[in-house]
Structure formats: structure tokens, C-alpha cells
């Protein structure tokens, strides 16, 4: 019976620790591959703020980061980009799901209802964007990259990439170009 006690007290915890370490290593490799792809294929674009954690509007320590929902497009030379981003942000704030079969649309509806972000860029439905291809996603806003270490503008900059599949889309905040 002593061997059962050894298994329960020693071996099972070691197996669990091994599984946790294995998962961490796998996750870090996946994240490194995503970051490498973003560096190779991504573009730095302006992203409009849809809604942001209230702490972003206060002065923060350099190491703080808080989530925000943003909208962006990878289309070049959009006339009046700032106005377009503001209009898209307002449309997302008021978003209601119409097509439950469209997974991106359904998830956007959940994000708006709960204000709980979704880290993969979601394509905004054409009924809102017209012919413009645009996305919404949640990003961590790094306070060290905010000019006054707080959100003072209705936009940030992101390095973004958008493949055809949702899991092949990425967006991460970067510093403002003049910062």
C-alpha cells in the first residue's frame, strides 16, 4: 500500500508539473511563431479605439498595460482615415448581430455585449464597412508607448496582418510613429 502513497504524493504531482511545463513551452513556441509572422508580413496601421479599460485614461506606470477594443483596415490610402475609423468604432459600439451563422459577426456581438475582448482580428461585416475591408480586435495597450502614459487620442498604432482564416490574423500595439 505504501507504493500507492508514493504515486499519489510524488509521481502524480511530477506528472502534472511536467504537463504544465510542456504546455508552457508549446504556448511560447506558438506565440514566437505568431510574432515572427507578424514581423514578416505585418503592416503598421492606425487603429481607432472602440472602447478601452478606464485605467488607460489615467496616468500609468511605464510597465502597465490594459486592454482596448480597436478597429483598423489594411487598405492603403483610405480618404479621411480618422473619420472612417471613428465611424467604424461608433458602429461597433452599437453593433447588434444580424447573421448568427457568420461566426465573426456573432463573436463581435458577444464582445460588444460583454466588453470582454477577443484577441484574433474579426472582419467587420460589409453591411457596416461597405466595400472597405476592416477588422476589430482586442489589443493590450502598452502604457510605455502612450505619449503621456495615458490614452489621449482616439487611436493607437498596431502592427497587423490578416490572412483569410481568423486564426491567421494578428494585431499588436506598437509605439506611435513620432514617439
Automatic annotation (TrEMBL):
The chain crosses the membrane at residues 6-27. This is DUF3592 domain-containing protein. Residues 78-105 form a coiled coil. Keywords: Coiled coil, Membrane, Transmembrane, Transmembrane helix. It comes from the Bacteria.
